[in-house]
Write a structure and sequence with these properties.
The protein contains 13 helices and two strands. The protein is mainly alpha-helical. The protein has two domains: 120 residues, Orthogonal Bundle (Peroxidase, domain 1); 138 residues, Orthogonal Bundle (Peroxidase, domain 2). The site of protoporphyrin IX containing FE has 25 residues, from helix 3, helix 7 and strand 1. It is found in: Secreted.
Length: 331
């Protein structure tokens, strides 16, 4: 080869290489299989442990999916939610809207075993993102969405950051849209991700106002299915018992599917924030489309796309942040 040919070959290789790297690596620095070289078995180990935990706890998917969402919406997906309060500095998990997050000890167990395999390599933020996916996926025995990795752990967790970043169950459509927009999530993401309420339960306090005192006159929220409201009143008598819970997707709260959109259409969305999705024309159209398909495949693919965006909110990558040794405390 002449010098010119060598030069051209090199140039072409560089351009091709650059394109490949760009395609594989999102702008935020997350990548597919980030630990491929540094800890090749990490993702498999997280999946194995999560699946064995999910086998003995059929509610684990709901717990970890919600935990990942709460982490991402407050200070980005940096595992700040996992930090325990130190001294007088109340951490995120002790903020009022935590409304009983569960599953922290599962993340601790996974982290302990991952540290044995590869010390100081795998972040708590990635473990949470993977375990959320794996716990929801367990019944299907295959990943229900892709998780990019390469997140690092934050060093700050403040209860005061929770307000304004997490929508409340009393939010109206504009509030929801605004909070999601602040996270670079659009109305499609809002509707699709609300489909996570196909899993899990809620405490009566999150919706009992809709049953007994909607406008302060002892009335019921007219946007709630009247038959369903009567059922809920029996399950959650006034005043609300703080330990009583009800399924958000009745009789289907353990199956990850598009059934949330079926009950939503029947005016059985449990929170005002669920019902609010029907108050905007565009949002209602998206919700109807998600339930109109014969199976959940369309919902699954949409959910995967929106989870990828949610999982990238405010991530710390490169040299920022740290790889925590213990998910509950900074190094
Ligand atoms: C759109 C705004 C949202 C609001 C206002 C909201 C609010 C709530 C509330 C109040 C609960 C019940 C908590 C309790 O009483 O114990 C809950 C549960 C839950 N949320 Fe959301 N949420 C929203 C979006 C999301 C998103 C985006 C996800 C995940 C992608 C999610 C996943 C869950 C899950 C899985 C549960 C059940 C947890 C369990 O059973 O352990 N939520 N949500
Ligand atoms: C995960 O489980 C599979 C199947 O039991 C096993 O073959 C594999 O070695 C496990 N991997 C790790 C990293 O634990
Ligand atoms: C949630 O917040 C309450 C009140 O601030 C606190 O007592 C409780 O320990 C918190 N729950 C969790 C799981 O951290
Ligand atoms: C405690 O709070 C202060 C300011 O409110 C903050 O600068 C500091 O990083 C916090 N510490 C932790 C461990 O989050
Ligand atoms: C209903 O709401 C009104 C106004 O907020 C309040 O004054 C009243 O005590 C509530 N009644 C009940 C039974 O909770
Ligand atoms: C209320 O829910 C029932 C099922 O529980 C359904 O048959 C009915 O169509 C719903 N009503 C409205 C107005 O959506």
């Amino acid at each position: 080869m002449s010098a010119r040919e060598v030069f051209l070959t090199l140039l072409v290789s560089l351009v091709v290489y650059g394109v490949i790297v760009r395609v594989c690596e999102a702008d935020d620095g997350l990548r597919k299989n980030f630990y491929k070289n540094s800890c090749p078995k990490a993702e498999q180990l997280v999946r194995n442990i999560t699946w064995s935990k999910a086998q003995s706890d059929d509610k684990l998917g709901a717990k970890l999916l919600r935990m990942h969402y709460h982490d991402c919406f407050v200070r980005g997906c940096d595992a700040s939610l996992l930090l325990d309060t130190v001294g007088t500095n109340q951490s995120e998990k002790d903020a009022r809207p935590n409304l009983t997050l569960l599953g922290f000890e599962v993340i601790d167990d996974i982290k302990t075993q991952v540290e044995k395999l590869c010390p100081n390599i795998v972040s708590c933020a990635d473990i949470l993102a993977l375990a959320a996916r794996d716990s929801v996926s367990f019944p299907f025995k295959q990943d229900k969405w892709d998780v990019l990795t390469g997140r690092r752990d934050g060093k700050i967790s403040l209860a005061s950051d929770v307000t304004g970043n997490l929508p409340s169950p009393f939010s109206d459509f504009n509030t929801l849209r605004q909070i999601f927009a602040n996270k670079n999530l659009n109305v499609n993401d809002l509707v699709v991700l609300s489909g996570a309420h196909t899993l899990g339960v809620a405490h009566c306090g999150a919706f009992s106002r809709r049953l007994f005192n909607f406008t302060g006159k002892g009335d019921t929220d007219p946007s709630l299915n009247a038959t369903y409201a009567e059922t809920l009143k029996k399950q959650c008598p006034n005043p609300a018992n703080p330990s009583t819970t009800v399924e958000m997707d009745p009789q289907s709260s353990l199956s990850f599917d598009n059934h949330y959109f079926t009950i939503l259409k029947q005016k059985m969305g449990l929170f005002q924030s669920d019902a609010a999705l029907l108050t905007d024309r565009n949002s209602a159209k998206i919700a109807i489309q998600l339930q109109s398909k014969p199976n959940s495949d369309n919902f699954f693919s949409e959910f995967g796309k929106s989870m990828k965006k949610m999982g990238a909110i405010g991530v710390l990558t490169g040299n920022v942040g740290e790889i925590r040794k213990n998910c509950r405390q900074v190094n």
